[in-house]
Amino acid sequence: MSTLAQETNPIARQPAHSSELQNRRLVRSWLYFCALVLLALVVVGGATRLTDSGLSITEWKPIHGVIPPLNAAEWQEELEKYRQIPEYQLINKGMSMSEFQFIFWWEWAHRFLARALGLVVALPLAFFWMTGRLDRRQKWPLLGLLALGGLQGFIGWWMVSSGLTERVDVSHYRLATHLCMAALILGVMIWIARGIAPHSQDLNPTRQSHIAAGLIAVLVFFQIYLGALVAGLDAGLVFNQWPRMGLGYYPGEMWEETIGWLNVMENPAIVQFVHRIGAYVLLFAVLIHAAIFWRHAPGSTHAWRAAMLAFLVVCQAIVGIITLVTFVPLNWALVHQGLAFIVLAFAIAHWRGLVGPLHLKNGQVHDHSVH
Fold it and tell me: 219 is in which domain, residue-wise?
């Protein structure tokens, strides 16, 4: 092959060092494992919310708090602390020890998984960093990922603290912030991992394909935020039929004039309506996205991924409807929340695949997107 052909053909470039490829596989596997732990954490967090367990531990002890009560005296001490907050005094007064232990273990498990995830991120990151398995373009994003995890710990306590003095539950705004930070952390994990993964050589269907995929990922993220507002306000229990809401398709009679536009954030009926509209918009967007990809690049890897994303969103819509009409049982609600994060992860991976890979140091990996 001529020198000119070698310069213009990305496949003919110098082969990548096998050690760098191996390092990327290790880092990628670690990040995907972290994502699975995070998904488990989100599901347990959802169960903690749905069982009203989030306020059962009234102190934040990042280190000592990993040890649960070990004897009757310690259990009694924890229950006495819980008896001081409004949730016990106004809702759970007279709760037995066994009932308290049920909600305590959900919150403890949630915090334990959060601590475990911190170690799963921090310790391998330190190992990869010190052994030279990361290039400089991976180091700062991964350090940022670790920082986001630390910030999430503070947000979690900030959320819990909102329900310890004047409220009987946590602020739904803070709950939404907490869940969205988890979604952001998952998105960063998948973005970094997908960037150092092998990429398809298929051309992007259109010049704007990566932009469209990015907008869909943003829509998924926003829908997760709306879902968090629904969960925080117990808005899923206001109307439990579909597609109607009461006598119509919009609960206009429940609009509160005194709070104006804040109805969309604070009125449970309107919040549920907005969440429904968000689901319709997202479903329409992914179906059109998949149709465009199949029109311009039928059978390509990108088209198949767009179709898979549309399938996941359809499944999520069906699960959401089932959750709604069955009055939000724990099992269906957890499937709905967990699947939302799976949809987000796939949307981010699809977007990253269209943006193109992070080049190896010798430049072998090529961005095959349309220019």
Answer: 198-371
